[in-house]
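#structure-requests
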Amino acid sequence: MANAAAARRGSLSMMATVATPGAASVKRLTSPEEELLKNTDVFIFDCDGVIWRGDSLIDKVPSVLEKLRAMGKRMFFVTNNSTKSRKGYKSKFSSLGLDVQDEEIFSSSFAAAAYLEQKNFKATGKKVYVIGEVGIGEELDLIGVPHIGGPADKGKTIELTPGYALEIDHDVGAVVVGFDRHFNYHKIQYAQLAINENGAEFIATNMDAVTHLTDAQEWAGAGSMVGCIKGCTGKEPTLVGKPSPLMIDYIVYKYKIPKDKICMVGDRLDTDILFGKDNGLKTVLTLSGVTSEEKLLGAANKIHPDFFVSSIADFFP
């Protein structure tokens, strides 16, 4: 009977690991306590596609977070979405019935401000030109860095008449590009001139190709805006959101947490999982967002999480 039981365990183990042609094995999380929970002190969760889709909570998320807190696990919520500041995200968590503290939230709008603060940008007396929404400006206000553009440039147009030249503020020392629902040619040209003629630093909040603005479909992400500015300047941006190490370095430094006790949980291979792997963290991919099981297991995929789950509800089956 012991041999039969061992054979059954071996069979289950083989079923849990999925081999893909030309790629490393990818393992579905089947024993959360043994495989993940007992050796992890901190969980870093992406938000879009993991905690919510659009303005809708993903099933069983509140109970999972409650159970993790009851186990003494520390949690952080890291999002590449720059449309809101940490204050704005705190309001969203509260509106969805989730009790999350301000210091547990890290948005790419905050990462952009933290990067500029780290560089002592304020001391230069320069301004930031923003392509993005209110979140970036709110975070810049908190560190006392002046900024222009952003929502104020919504709807601005350019008339290409003979002899016309767009005038820009020559005190612009950085251009921060994030997701912008009101992206337009005025913003493109302003950023191009600031970077190419002023020598302003080009900073990207993230390079996400698509994002979850609603729960109905995927929408073009900030990567489309950043790509446009890359195209007209010929410059590569400084990336401050995932998979850049800036946010994880901040968390490790401030909270003195060893990286091998941290797990990154996300729905994107090229940002969340790459972010975790590049920074020495455990990684879990959830299929509740933009990545399908077919893409994860496909031979073309070269980014492999430690585990994958259907959603974080699988942490407590």
